[in-house]
Amino acid sequence: MKKLLMLSAILLSTSAFADILIDNPRSRVSAPTVKVGGAFMDITNNGKEDDVLLSASTPRSGKTELHNTVIDENGVMKMREMENGIPIPAGETVVLKPGSLHVMFMDLHEPFQLGQTYPLTLKFKNAGEKTVTVNVKDMPAPQQHQHNMQKDMQHDHKNMHK
Ligand SMILES: [Cu+2]
């Protein structure tokens, strides 16, 4: 039974010459005590058939999920697991980036450090498994706006006392 399933999987995959390209795989430097992290990249499907990113795995993490970031009815940002994977339509590029779709590491064995690289295996429905090398980068968190607001408020406060 298992052999039959494998055979049909091979037959299916030979009909699909899905050409998946993965560009700029990267992770953010993580704080020493943080056990979670993400991976971001552009995934282009140059094939003629739609594909799906089903799962991801790396020796760096005990558990890895595929997530999307959504804003709920209360305006709160939440991450949701993509239980059926991330669709990669034919002829399109799907962007995995902070605040959007991402690979999520739920159980990092060690934090990501600047300049490190690590292997990440992506499993596609048609294209099969592809292992890429992820670069750990100093990706700035989108918090500068808040800092600016704080400065502006202090500024206003001073002006009031003039
Ligand atoms: Cu997440």
Task: Summarize the structure in words.
The protein has 162 residues and is α+β, with helices and mostly antiparallel strands. Strand 9 (117-124) and strand 10 form a beta hairpin. It has one domain (18-155): PCu(A)C copper chaperone (Immunoglobulin-like). Strands 1, 2, 3, 4, 5, 6, 7, 8, 9 and 10 form a ten-stranded mixed beta sheet that branches. The protein has helices at 2-15, 144-160, and strands at residues 20-28, 37-45, 51-57, 64-71, 77-81, 86-88, 93-96, 102-105, 117-124, 128-137. It is built from two helices and ten strands; from the N terminus they run αββββββββββα. The longest helix has 17 residues, at 144-160. The model is unreliable at 143-162 (pLDDT under 50). It is 19% helix and 41% strand. The structure holds copper (II) ion (CU). Residues 67, 79, 102, 104 line the site of copper (II) ion.
Name of the CATH homologous superfamily = PCu(A)C copper chaperone
Secondary-structure-based class equals: alpha+beta
Q: Give the overall pLDDT as a whole number.
A: 84
Q: H/E element string?
A: HEEEEEEEEEEH
Q: What name does the CATH topology carry?
A: Immunoglobulin-like
Radius of gyration: 20 Å
Distance between the termini: 83 Å
**What is the count of β-strands?**
10
Low-confidence stretches: 143-162
**CATH top level?**
Mainly Beta
User: What level of helicity do the residues show?
Assistant: 10-25%
Q: What overall geometry do the principal axes of the alpha carbons give? A: globular
